[in-house]
Amino acid sequence: MAQNSLFAILLRSPWWISLAVVLVIVAVCGAFLPREIAPFAALGALPIFVIGCMAAWRQFRAPSSSRLQTMHARIAAMSWKEFAAALETAWQREGQSVQRMPGGNTAADLQLAKGGTTSLVSARRWKAANHGVEPLRELQEAVARQKADHGVYVVLQGSLTENARAFAKEHGLLLLEGDALCAMLLKSQGDRS
């Protein structure tokens, strides 16, 4: 699904917006179309209704902001060993095979495999205050060298420079940062409150 398509935007928006759009479509169809055609035209709003239900399901299952903040603080207090173990557990619970990379490898820390797809994960700089292009470039080179399918760069705090974000997008590197990282670790613990 295209990132800026109507459905993608509605999936990211609060669920009630989709339902409001459905009501507007149904009202317009009822007001401006002949009675014989209006119900059939209003059925065109069904995909938007489904997207609204999907958004509601996701949003009701998502952890609360207070849980995310608590997890953020817990992750920030972790040592590298604890954080790596938490990532391993989270990805294993998602069905990934997780292998730690050899100690001399500075570009990638973990290798994930599932269904014939391999991903390299760079997570050691998760607490860094600033993230530039260089660690992403190293990760991209490791992905190419090992013929992996994806590269994942993990960031808890700090900021990625605009150049780093552009580099990640251009080279298809996935960024796992902030709330998404916290939600993944909460989910692996079975904690969604």
UniProtKB/TrEMBL annotation:
Pfam families: Mrr_cat. One of its GO terms (biological process) is DNA restriction-modification system. InterPro entries: Restrct_endonuc-II-like (IPR011335), Restrct_endonuc_IV_Mrr (IPR007560). GO terms for molecular function: DNA binding; endonuclease activity. Residues 75-185 form the Restriction endonuclease type IV Mrr domain. It comes from Diaphorobacter ruginosibacter. This is Restriction endonuclease. Keywords: Endonuclease, Hydrolase, Membrane, Nuclease, Transmembrane, Transmembrane helix. The lineage of its organism: Bacteria, Pseudomonadati, Pseudomonadota, Betaproteobacteria, Burkholderiales. The chain crosses the membrane at residues 15-33, 40-57.
